[in-house]
Specification:
12 helices
């Protein structure tokens, strides 16, 4: 290093550039790396996984989390020392307002994962300890693709999972690298399998790999679908796989309810018995054929009526009344009058439109619309939303029972 003092200015400048690149590509300061507008894009582009703590110094919860996250960053750096693998970062949202806006940060602390430069849909909502963070990062860096050795193995795959299957000649094909990157980004929503050489030879022409999506058999009657786009275009494949792996009709659970409410769209929910798969399939078919135009204005969901007995109680219903359909607007809940009427063309769509026109709320208060004022009944109040109670706080990150 000192011998460069006698070198030309060009060599000194070149050495400085190399050092800057090394700093950006291999952040090694103790604790999480402080990310700013200046070094953020370089860090995201040069690492497979970036785990970011968005905080505010005035926030008590941020201050509690900070030393835990920094300790985890040191342990993870020791576990994964190679460059380009993983970086634990932190963003001061008061100082870096543009970065906070870019990632839609509205509460503190918020923990987000960026894989291959793209934000994961789900925030980290698990336990906040350095052990839990290390375990989480290890899980994120696991190979997302399982290899099958013969085609018979594919017939034994779980029927309640969405699966993407790749048929390749060999592992060093450029298309497989793109397939793996896509799988890394979408692995939370699909299972990924791959077969090489003899294991998949009968499924595709030599030198022409094929990727197939297999839907969840328990929730859909759809058939397997083959990808017809370019396997050398990451963005094109990523969009296709994402659309297939994140279904139009999703299941709501206590684990994902918070992230679903954060999307800000009212819920159209089919409540069903735990063993009732047929109503799920039929509801899904109707949504796909009749309600596709409404997907920007409402979330289509199914819910286990036994687990979500409380919302049913608010509607004056119980397990014996299943299946049934309701809208939760995050203010009130509205019951679809007759489950069987979803088979009537346009009936379910009109139910959604009546929410946005205010008709559902108005008629719950005063009865069916009528020009005769004397026919209107005394005002009543619709059942309050129960799912809004599962939403995060508007002011800070919602803490789970086992956090901090």
């Amino acid at each position: 290093m000192y011998t460069l003092r006698t070198a030309s200015n060009f060599k000194i400048t070149f050495f400085t550039c190399l050092m800057l690149v090394y700093v950006f590509y291999n952040p090694t300061d103790s604790g999480a790396v402080q990310l700013t507008q200046d070094n953020l894009d370089m860090t995201l582009a040069s690492n497979e996984l970036v785990f970011i703590n968005f905080y505010a110094e005035w926030c008590r919860f941020s201050n509690i989390l900070m030393p835990i996250f920094d300790e985890a960053a040191d342990k993870i750096a020791l576990e994964f020392p190679e460059a380009g693998k993983v970086v634990m970062g932190k963003v001061d949202c008061d100082k870096e307002g543009s970065v906070a806006t870019r990632f839609h940060i509205t509460k503190y602390p918020t923990l987000k994962v960026i894989r291959n430069g793209q934000p994961a849909k789900r925030e980290y909502r698990g336990e906040r300890s350095h052990e839990a963070f290390l375990k989480f990062v290890k899980k994120q860096l696991e190979d997302p693709i399982k290899e099958f050795k013969n085609l018979r193995e594919l017939s034994d795959l779980e029927s309640d999972k969405r699966v993407v299957i790749g048929y390749f000649d060999r592992r060093d094909q450029p298309e497989y690298n793109i397939f793996r990157r896509v799988a890394t980004n979408v692995k939370d929503d699909c299972l990924f399998y791959v077969g090489f050489d003899e294991a998949s030879r009968t499924m595709h022409p030599a030198g022409q790999p094929i990727i197939v999506f297999r839907p969840d058999r328990e929730r859909s009657n759809d058939l397997d679908e083959t990808y017809t786009g370019s396997l050398k275009n990451f963005d094109e494949l990523h969009i296709w796989v994402s659309e297939k792996c994140v279904p139009l009709v999703r299941e709501i659970t206590f684990e994902n309810a918070e992230e679903l409410t954060e999307e800000g769209l009212p819920f159209l929910i089919l409540f069903h018995s735990p063993d009732d798969k047929e109503s799920i399939k039929r509801f899904t078919e109707i949504v796909q054929t009749d309600l596709l135009s409404e997907k920007q204005s409402i979330n289509f969901l199914t819910a286990d009526g036994k687990k979500f007995a409380h919302p049913l109680h608010h509607l004056g219903k119980n397990e014996k009344d299943l299946p049934l359909i309701a809208i939760d607007s995050f203010r009130h809940m509205y019951l679809f009058p007759d489950y069987k009427d979803m088979e009537v063309p346009g009936k379910l769509k009109q139910f959604i439109q009546d929410l946005y026109s205010g008709k559902l709320h108005r008629e719950f208060h005063y009865g069916p619309d009528s020009d005769d004022a004397s026919s209107q009944k005394a005002p009543t109040l619709p059942p309050e939303s129960t799912f809004k109670k599962l939403a995060p706080s508007k002011n800070r990150y919602t803490l789970l029972k086992d956090e901090l």
